Amino acid sequence: MQRVCFLLKVRPERLAEYRARHGEVWPEMREALARTGWHNYSLFLRDDGLLVGYLETEDFEAAKKAMAETEVNARWQAEMAPFFESLDGRPDEGMHPLDEVFHLD
């Protein structure tokens, strides 16, 4: 299983709304993520807007591609894009994995 961690930056003035939206992720979005190989997926948000994402998957590129082909993802990404700073495109296109330098089971 591949472990993936990425960083994004949420606009400080949108933090409360971002948190609220993720408290109510659409059931069809949750189902699509699970179906396309996103497992143990978590988002962590710092008060200055730093967002840390973590997931486990067999193949991150394949999981991203499969999600990108779903209609629900297109709707979700369109709604989430205004929450982020410094993006050239959709939020899911800005997920660049960090290099894992240590892991302890």
Automatic annotation (TrEMBL):
One GO BP: rhamnose catabolic process
GO molecular function, one term: racemase and epimerase activity, acting on carbohydrates and derivatives
Superkingdom as given in the UniProt entry: Bacteria
Signal peptide: none
Gene3D superfamilies (UniProt xref): 3.30.70.100
InterPro entries registered for this protein in UniProt: Dimeric_a/b-barrel (IPR011008), Rham/fucose_mutarotase (IPR008000)
Pfam families: rhaM
Protein name per the record: L-rhamnose mutarotase
Organism listed in the record: Nonomuraea zeae
Upper lineage: Bacteria, Bacillati, Actinomycetota, Actinomycetes, Streptosporangiales
